[in-house]
UniProtKB/TrEMBL annotation:
UniProt superkingdom: Bacteria
EC number: 4.1.1.37
Principal location class: cytoplasm
Protein's recorded name: Uroporphyrinogen decarboxylase
Any matching Pfam family: URO-D
Pathway in which this enzyme or protein is active: Porphyrin-containing compound metabolism; protoporphyrin-IX biosynthesis; coproporphyrinogen-III from 5-aminolevulinate: step 4/4
Keyword entries, A-Z: Cytoplasm, Decarboxylase, Lyase, Porphyrin biosynthesis
Gene it is expressed from: hemE
Organism this protein belongs to: Ideonella azotifigens
Amino acid sequence: MFAPLQNDTFLRACLRKPTTHTPVWLMRQAGRYLPEYRETRAKAGSFMGLATNTEYATEVTLQPLERYPLDAAILFSDILTVPDAMGLGLSFQQGEGPRFAYPVRDEAAVQALAVPDMDKLRYVFDAVTSIRRALNGRVPLIGFSGSPWTLACYMVEGAGSDDYRQVKSMLYSRPDLMHRMLQVNADAVALYLNTQIEAGAQAVMIFDSWGGVLADGAFQRFSLDYTRRVVSQLKREQGGERVPVIVFTKGGGLWLRQIAECGADVVGLDWTVNLGEARQRVGASVALQGNLDPNVLFAPPEVVQAEARLVLDSFGRPQRADGGWDGHVFNLGHGISQFTPPERVLDLVQAVHEHSRALRASPAAA
């Protein structure tokens, strides 16, 4: 049993219900920009040492909530845990990012892929339960995974990439192999997220970080179709409560309406999308999440606050003329930079809360 929620604003916004203010959380909010995170990371000895230790993962997930009045926590983990559990040998080199020892680049490697035993990811689910208990109902907990396509990019490239040459070569020359990999990934991601929900996650997010590198047409076939396959398998209720699903495609503004039809409750937007226009395009079908440029946080406090207000003004009053509510979750358009001054985050969160309350109280536009 978990403690009842004291602040459900995030969940209400995801489900397009009335809220007193616009909830805010930040992608990568538990991370290297916080000195306390760096201290815990040093104690853990490595990134995976941090992510696989329940106590440390709980500690760093809660750190930003001790500093800022955020409206949600997000599990501290990595998007590549699923392919690691498939036996690809994940490691993190200092200054280089993630790397797989055994990239998937030929037919034999693709055919050998299978949905992993979730016991290999027990450390993730133990962390979810531990964090949920430690939150004690303060705010909801978000679980997450990489999208099938984004996982495939890392699995084929073996690391991050500038040109996606290996994975796109497979996509165009052997689409059968790519579809086989994406099917396995989608079913693995769905099982992974469902197990997080069973462990205590109150919302889940699918990070399609590299969907935007695909051509129109290819995006639908190789990214969106498999995100839809994941969403269709997800548990949407746990303990009598709706579990919202968020889908975020970086660079996906071109396909906003199609993404909004994938079955998710919330569509995340990067900073290149006009939030007001996005609201008009999706109507009342989904809530929106985003979408401040993360680099705004390097500006002086008054600029951070002004830019936050511009994002909120772009979305407008969440109350609709017909009496309904459109949901907005304030976030960055991508993850927070490790070089961000921690003080600017407080400026941002306070500005979002204050201005969104004022917007709700203002008279409707004529």
